[in-house]
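Q: Is it fine to ask for two folds in a single conversation?
A: Yes, each is treated on its own. Send the first.
Q: Here.
A: Result:
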Amino acid sequence: MKKAEEAGFSSFSEFVVFVLEQLVSEEEGGGEVFSEEDEEKVKERLRALGYIE
């Protein structure tokens, strides 16, 4: 959480989504990282794992 705050993110979940988008973007070579549906699926999974509320 400290790294997320230091980087200027308002929440840990915002930081996690940013990091995941960056990783996927690097793999795919750019472009749209997640559709809204994909982003929601990632968020739901992170909630289920207890990483975000």
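Q: Second one now.
A: Result:
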Amino acid sequence: MKKFVILLFLISTLVFSKKSNAQSYTITHDIYWATYYQNMWGPNGSPFSINVNLPLFHIEFDTNIQLGWMDTTLGIVTGAMFELDNWLVIGSTFEMSGWESGYVDVIYPVETELTIPNDYTFNPGEIVTINSEYTVLPGAELVSQFPQAGIISLDLDFGFGLNLDATVCLAGCTTIPIIDVNIPLDSIAIFYLNGQTGEVVYPCIQNGWIAFCEDDVLPITFNNLWGIGLSGWITLPYIETTDYLDLSDPCHQQLIANGDSNYMFLNLDIIQFLSAIAGLIPPPQGPAIQQFLGMLQGTYDLGGGIYVEYNLLSAWFDITNTMQQDLTFNPTVQTIFSFPTPVEYTVTNPHNGNQIVDQGVSDLIAFPTCCDLNYRYPCYGWPELEIGYSAHLYNEFTNHVWDSLAFTFSIEALEFTFHIPFPFVKSYTIPEMCIHALNENGESVAFCLPEITNEEFYPNLQTKGELAQDSTKDGGPKLDWHIGPLIDMDIPIGYIPITWYNNTWELDGFLDTIFAPITMIPNPEFEFISIVGNDNICAGDSI
């Protein structure tokens, strides 16, 4: 009798298990999730304001050089000595501030689907699997409204000091001032655009004269009229994004929106620009700049065949700015089950080799609507289970705003050639001399002129790179010192990504949706009369 009952139980279990593998039904629900006017710069109530000060380039240079030659014969001093004292600061700063407005709308309609075993196709104590998935319905959107109330500006920082004197001794000694310029360091606005007040300031031509214009018309175009040294255009950035749906991950079907705004292209000849606006700058900077620009290059004759050729400064840069915005709405549609009693469960991901993503014992289970819930139906006392069912939309929203900046800067400064005749003496020695200058990487390095003696000078006159025969001046040989350019730099930057803002948070406004409960009914519990010492048999128990 005992063997018969056990055999009957096993046959029944096999029959019910076979039905369980083949029979199921589906529950589908359409959910229209949407949220509107969410702050673009972080959770509502804590807005972010862009406030960036970006030095595009900054060069500081300071040097003091003494060079030349003096010789005393029979108490008579002949020769020339030069003293050069110089400092230079040049740079440019781009600033951006404000931009605290702006919002996003997210519309995310979905259809959820649960696949559930039919009633009476599983046994008490058996593992029951509920499959889940969701589909994004037509009409999903990620819409952005970029702010229009920011401020951008570009400044040129410039200061320059140069003192060049010569002490010339022929029949007597005389100190001659050659160049004496001092331009205090100042910041000069190239443009200023304020979207909050509507104020716009930029250099322009008014009635045939250079001026700083103020208006509210954008974009501004510079075409180097009247040789102001500034070409290009500028406007306030405004990004319009285009969205699309990324279905590559069934568990996180993302809405992504991208856009850009090419808002600045400028080419600036710094010397030409300073020359154009120097008359608009108040003292002491304005007059000092005008004096400086009047002597940028030339020749200064000290007499007696001694003269200096010089080139003080040339510099220019161009810049292109494109602001980019990348918005990502990364959702997780969650199915939430509320059981009347705690159950043992695992959550597995069928899209990743059935990897277990969660497990435990609980009466409240939330899992991504793309995974399988595997729970053990209670063995005793539950002829049916009523499971509460709701859906929640968890999300991570990312706003990444950044600039794609291309920039080129070139400068040559402080180049001198000193010409000194030597008809006076038969023997002399000029000692080795070293000066410091900036290389193309902006690093200070030493450049040395070797010691020069009379014996080297005359026999090798035509082969020395620093020595030259000049028959047109005084009929005799000359010693030429060529120095510089002490600053010679090219900074080509093809592309720099500059992040203004990059943050991730959860967007508010998506409401949970509650559905009708799900009722699951197993096969009847098995009852025995004192055969195995237990009146109830649960699936998986040993008999």
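Q: Anything structural to flag on that second result?
A: Two points. Helices lie at 2-22, 270-277, 285-293, 454-457. The chain has one domain: 2-298+313-406+483-537.
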